[in-house]
């Protein structure tokens, strides 16, 4: 099985940014742990701070991956374009967030991404990504 993890804006700063909310582990370290745990899977990774690059990653996944794990960051609450890109491809997407977005600022309670995803996993720290992988394996 081939999965793609796509992280949106500011997630390149995991381990440094707001560590009380997001933790101290950089994503590349966690990604390597996932790859070591799930050796039978191919887990590719893309991160961008640019909406268009995230859309391109979703488009390029079409026909090349069995599933996408997407943390769109703040684009969750603003991007109809990412929503439309998910609808345009034939690859199931699981939306993940490290924090519990429903317990944060009011504007974070609206997701344009959730309605077009296979499922959503919020609030389990970096373990949200592992839970998303497990959803594809099941």
Summarize the structure.
The protein is of the alpha/beta class and 138 residues long. It has helices at 19-22, 27-37, 51-61, 80-88, 127-137; strands spanning 2-7, 42-47, 67-71, 93-97, 119-122.
Rg from alpha-carbon coordinates: 14 Å
Enter the CATH topology name. Answer: Rossmann fold
CATH class: Alpha Beta
Oligomer: single chain
Q: What's the SSE pattern?
A: EHHEHEHEEH
Largest sheet: 5 strands, parallel
Mean pLDDT: 92
Residue windows where pLDDT falls under 50 for at least 5 positions? none
Tally of alpha and pi helices: 5
Coarse morphology: globular
Number of domains: 1
CATH homologous superfamily assignment: Dehydroquinase, class II
Distance between the termini: 12 Å
Strand order of the largest sheet: 2-1-3-4-5
Q: What's the total count of β strands?
A: 5
Decide which structural class fits the backbone: alpha/beta
| Percentage beta strand | 15-25%
CATH architecture: 3-Layer(aba) Sandwich
Helicity range:
25-40%
């Amino acid at each position: 099985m081939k999965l793609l993890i796509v992280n949106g804006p500011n997630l390149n700063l995991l381990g440094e940014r707001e560590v009380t909310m997001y933790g101290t582990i950089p994503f590349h370290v966690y990604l390597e742990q996932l790859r070591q745990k799930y050796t039978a899977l191919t887990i590719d990774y893309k991160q961008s701070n640019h909406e268009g690059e995230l859309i391109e990653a979703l488009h390029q996944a079409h026909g090349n991956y069995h599933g996408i794990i997407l943390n769109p960051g703040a684009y969750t609450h603003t991007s109809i374009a990412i929503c439309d890109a998910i609808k345009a491809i034939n690859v199931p997407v699981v939306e993940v967030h490290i924090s519990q977005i429903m317990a944060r600022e009011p504007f974070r309670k609206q997701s344009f991404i959730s309605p077009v995803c296979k499922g959503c996993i919020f609030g389990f720290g970096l373990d949200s990504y592992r839970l998303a992988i497990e959803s594809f394996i099941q």
